[in-house]
Amino acid sequence: xxxxxxxxxxxxxxxxxxxxxxxxxxxxxxxxxxxxxxxxxxxxxxxxxxxxxxxxxxxxxxxxxxxxxxxxxxxxxxxxxxxxxxxxxxxxxxxxxxxxxxxxxxxxxxxxxxxxxxxxxxxxxxxxxxxxxxxxxxxxxxxxxxxxxxxxxxxxxxxxxxxxxxxxxxxxxxxxxxxxxxxxxxxxxxxxxxxxxxxxxxxxxxxxxxxxxxxxxxxxxxxxxxxxxxxxxxxxxxxxxxxxxxxxxxxxxxxxxxxxxxxxxxxxxxxxxxxxxxxxxxxxxxxxxxxxxxxxxxxxxxxxxxxxxxxxxxxxxxxxxxxxxxxxxxxxxxxxxxxxxxxxxxxxxxxxxxxxxxxxxxxxxxxxxxxxxxxxxxxxxxxxxxxxxxxxxxxxxxxxxxxxxxxxxxxxxxxxxxxxxxxxxxxxxxxxxxxxxxxxxxxxxxxxxxxxxxxxxxxxxxxxxxxxxxxxxxxxxxxxxxxxxxxxxxxxxxxxxxxxxxxxxxxxxxxxxxxxxxxxxxxxxxxxxxxxxxxxxxxxxxxxxxxxxxxxxxxxxxxxxxxxxxxxxxxxxxxxxxxxxxxxxxxxxxxxxxxxxxxxxxxxxxxxxxxxxxxxxxxxxxxxxxxxxxxxxxxxxxxxxxxxxxxxxxxxxxxxxxxxxxxxxxxxxxxxxxxxxxxxxxxxxxxxxxxxxxxxxxxxxxxxxxxxxxxxxxxxxxxxxxxxxxxxxxxxxxxxxxxxxxxxxx
Length: 746
Fold this sequence. Notes:
This protein is an all-beta fold. Helix content is 3%, strand content 41%. Residues 1-19 have low confidence and may be disordered. The protein folds into five domains: 22-247, Jelly Rolls (Sandwich), CATH 2.60.120.200; 258-345, Immunoglobulins (Immunoglobulin-like, Sandwich); 352-441, Immunoglobulin-like, CATH 2.60.40; 443-676, CATH 2.40.50.140; 679-744, Immunoglobulins (Immunoglobulin-like, Sandwich). The N and C termini lie far apart (110 Å). It is elongated.
């Protein structure tokens, strides 16, 4: 049964309004049959005499298949199910002698949907009934709700210009009001169920520019492109004002809207996008407001805003409930839909699991590793990990409820390396992950110069203390620089850079358990640990309780201690150089004055820190460790030709400025050289002289210079001389004349 939206005020064809604004009206109160035959006036109407016909063929059509049934004109499609081809129009006989804005109004009821791209079915007629303006289109475009359609408008175009963004139901009466403005570039507007001309419309600014023409009539069209479209037209009115066209068709009294389609009950799976929709029809169709109820309570927010569609972008179990749509007209009257139950539930499917591809996971020796999968799907999901290296070619691992498997103490021969996989299960089935192959590897072997780059560029503190690194170099300190059960030594490698080695639980207190770290000066050591910053000094740190760290002592070569770097007292002004190249290396200060510290006994109960200077008054700090028995009780001199030892820093990691609190560590009293270097020259032939000297306690690189007089100038005769026995010798075979020699160091 067809539903009517509002109580219509049907007009008798024979009762012509006396208001001048009305041009034409027709209630199609004719005998059933072809309209050009049955639309005969029983009385004079619209200026036409009695017994004259009101509707005529449009164009060259000759068919008589535009029908009227039960006071409604029928519009079908040429070539459709009914195959009706006739187009018809009526002629205006009053109020058409001037060019101006004109309005049409009629009731339309669609029973068979138009195609997605439909065509026009109603229009104004001008220019000898061959030019059509304000064409009204029926379409069911993409984006509309299922089984709904929309109305649009154009000027002279065969393609819709603007669509009214309102979904319309089938089998429902809607009042259509159309404005045609032939003056303003043939502009037009269309309303559905309007209350006034200020209601939202679908208007356009014009698509024709020919001279304005007065309307001659109004027409309806049956097009071949309409497919199976079918609608009825009733209560046509044409007037020069919006109000006259509107009110000659529909009542202006406030009327309740009606729900023409309630939301449908639905079952959806969790995570799916769900839309509940309803349709209402009422006065101010484009201005209806919509409120949604869940279990009788108002839903404050709708993802679609004010809409007859309630959206759930990703439904969850909490969305389940009873829903209703409330539609309210601008006049404040409302109607409520019937209840629709939404059930959001789980799909009866097995879980999905990632990763699905095989992968290799490398873990450093004796570190912990972890494997993780990600599974999704209906609950409850359980996990079972398998290790395929067990004798039974696959064995389950305890704690199956976790998606992450932790593997402790990964090593090559303790049953931790090999292939693992995980099976995720729910009540509907299971899925297996890809295979994880766990490989144990020694940490990267790197230079100390590389380790010193792994700091931030501002404070020069460590950025990652989790990774393990392996560095090999020579121990440069003669004793442990810390106490208790910890050990602290400096090491330097061939890159010329040094670093502090610090071992927790590695001090002399653990001698009985053989867990202590106590290398000798000159030992070549390979150490594995992590980087840390302690009081701004970079450390390679280990722990005897952490099997991912450790050391190997290869040999002792005391004479092979790396040569020290001669530095000026002012070098600490260059922060970048200090942090990347100098800190923790063996350095030498030359021409050192002990000042008021001369004659001081080095304490045996606390570390001793003193300040020394050079001839220019620049200062530097020296530190003597109480751990070194070779130092304690010794008397400091007033002057030394040089002082050597590794450089450290004692500054909070965030203290600024950063270029302060550097300390030269003394670990042997012999590193304070107070005796001048003695050079002996002996002639062993006519042109041969042998130079010998007692070297300082490091393998310095020496340069031999010679001159013809004691005052010079001196030139190099040999440079880069390195000796491993702390003593030096050089033979000059070009000494044909008297020469004076001297030694220089960097």
